[in-house]
Amino acid sequence: MKVRPGPAFPGVTDAPRILILLTAIIVLFLGGCGKKKISKAELREVTSEIVTAAQKISGHKSEVTIRPELQLSKNGTPGKLAADNVYVSLSDASQAGAIAKALDEIARRHELSVRETTSNGIMRFDYVTGGIRTHTIHVVIPLTARSNIAMTQGRRDARLAIIIDDLGYDREAADSLLALGFPLTVSVLPHLPLSTEVAEEAYRRGDQVMLHLPMQSENATAKTEEVELRVGMNEQQVDSALAGMLETVPHAVGVNNHQGSRATADPALMAALMPELRRRGLFFVDSRTMASTVAYSTAERLGVRAASRRVFLDDSENREAILKQLELAAHDAEREGFAIAIGHPRSDTIAVLALDLPRLASRGIHLVFVSDVVQ
Predict the structure, then answer these.
(1) What stretches of 5-84 show up as alpha helix (H) in DSSP?
(2) pLDDT at residue number 18
(3) In the predicted model, is pLDDT for residue 36 greater than 90?
(4) CATH class of 40-143
(5) Domains of the chain, residue spans
């Protein structure tokens, strides 16, 4: 009579036994291969080494900024240090290889893995341990330091300022814009995951940065931002909201309204906003999302440098229509001496700018920052 072997654990069939064994293996694995944690002291030591390497390679000519990234608690308030964002501007494009090598060596010494992403003129290095990011190093080569960029100067009496709105949502769109070989005015929405990063990189690239200031729309179904200026807010509320927005958009030298068809038509709200802009030395560009806007006239009356948008480039999202709008803005610049056009970081808009701005420059239209034309 054959005897069939019983289960290794009495009363346990094959399937449950396999499950128990797998669970035991997972527990042992996790126990022996836990995530390596990096202390705040070591994190800051790594940051110090990054700064030292950047300054050494650039001959102490590199502009370096450290922006700590804090963990957010459940109620949204900042908590412990999570990572350091380090922004490095190189004065010489030939230094890029040396700094990449130095960053690899620093990571190796501290047993950190490195993830690198590169776009035209910007390199990003993420330091990671146990799946947790500890640093992002943004190495930016300004337009003036890139040997392949030739900036054409046109006549000063035909000036065109182009604002690109709505930055802060999309990393790919921002990279495509920053890869253009022309200085632009970049307007960044506040309080978004990429707001500070895009503003810092644009500034270091050589672009001008503005705050794309969210304001209440006339359309009740329009998408609202986390914080926006709304009709009925007093001066203190406007000041507090504006201060918080500017903290997330560094290097902003002016503002233009995001939406705001109801807000910009409200005299009381605009009268509360303009003194806060004047106190901070910021100019205002009226995007003119509403014909009844009083924003520009209020800015003029209260002593704020201001201007108004003439042309929207990409209300229609096809290249032929965008090209026609860009040509309209160019004619305005030739006729009036200057013009302001507003577009968005869409693929067709960026493609038209890349192809057509050299042609406009060749006929004497000078691409300028918005600050050059506000009065």
Answers:
(1) 14-32, 40-57
(2) 56
(3) no
(4) alpha beta
(5) 40-143, 150-372
